[in-house]
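look at this fold:
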Amino acid sequence: MFNDVFYQTHLGEVFEQSMCIYHEHAIVHLLSSMLMNMGYQQIPGSPRVWSRGSRKVVVCLADDFGVNRDDQRLPPKKWFDADTVIITDNHMPFATDYQILKLPTSYFGVFHYVPKDQHWKPIRRFNFSVNRLDSQRQLILLELTKQSGGIDQVTLLDHVNFNARARGNEHSAEDARSSFAQCWTHLNQLHSTEYADWFDQTLPHVPIRNHKLTVEQTQVGAYLNLVIETYAGDATIAFSEKIFRALVTPAPWAVFSAKHAVNYLKTLGFDVLDDVVDHDYDNLTQYNTKYGHRKISEFVKLNIQNYHNITHLDQAKLAARCQTAAAHNQQLLAKMQRQWPGNFAQWLPEAIAKLQ
C-alpha cells in the first residue's frame, strides 16, 4: 500500500518546487569536502561526525544536532565537549561549552516556493498528517483521540493521514499496525493509564487515511493545520519543510515543535498569524513530564479551542488575512533565497578559520 504516490513524500510540491533536499545535500557535501581537505575523517557509524585528533565537528542540517550526542542525560550546554564544533541551521538559545557555527538564517531560503493552490476552503476541523512514527507522534494521536471523544470522531472531523511507518520498510497495513504496537511498548509508563484504552481503540484503524486528497489539498481544506515537526524539546530549535509549507499556505496553522519555535520564527520576520491563532503552547516545557505528555495534552486542548475560535470569525476577512500572511512569508523566503549565496560566502572564511 505504501507504494501509492501519496506516500512518496519526496514527490510533494514543497520538495519538487523548492529543491530543498538538493540544496541541503549540496551544502553538506561542500562542508564534508572541506573537512576532508583539512584532515578530518568521518567517524564510522556516525555520518554527521568528523574527527581530527581530539577535535570533533558535527555537520547537521534540518535535524536536531542534539541527536548526535553520546549521553542523552546531559544538559544542553554539555551535550558535547569543548573540543567539538557544531555546524548547523539549528537555533540554540543557550550558551554552550562547545562551539556552534550557525549558518546564516537566509539558509531557510532553500524552502522558498509558492503553493499552486492559494484558496483556503475549509471543510474539516484539522489537517493532521504524520508520515513517520515515534513515541511522540503516537502520543499526539492518542491525545487527539482522547480529547475528541474517540477515533471515529477524529476521522469524522479531520483530514487524517497517520501511516505509522517507524522503520521505513513497512509494506502493508498489518506491518503498520505491528510498528504501532511496538512503539506503544516504549510508552510503558502510560500503560496503566487511560491511554491504554485509547491505544486499543485506535490500533485497528492504523494506518489511518480518511481522504483521497493530496497533502496540499488537505492544507487548504482544514480550519487549522496541525504541523507536527520532526523534533521538539526545550533547547534546540530545528525546522523542516513542514513548517515552511504551512507558512506559505494561506491557512491557519499551529506547530508542535521546540519550546519558543514560533517566537523564533517571528523574530526572523515571518507572519505567524498570532492575531488569529493562540500560540501559547509555544511556551510549554517538553521535558517536565515523561514523553512530554503534559505539553502534548495542552497543545491538543488549546488547538481545539483555536478551531472553535476560528469558526466564529468572519471567514472572508480571515481568508484575506491568511492570504496576506502567506504572501508575506513567500516574499520573505524569496528574499532569503537571493541573499543566501552571498551570506554563505561571507560566513565560510570565518568558519574555516575556526576549523583549522
The mean pLDDT is 95.
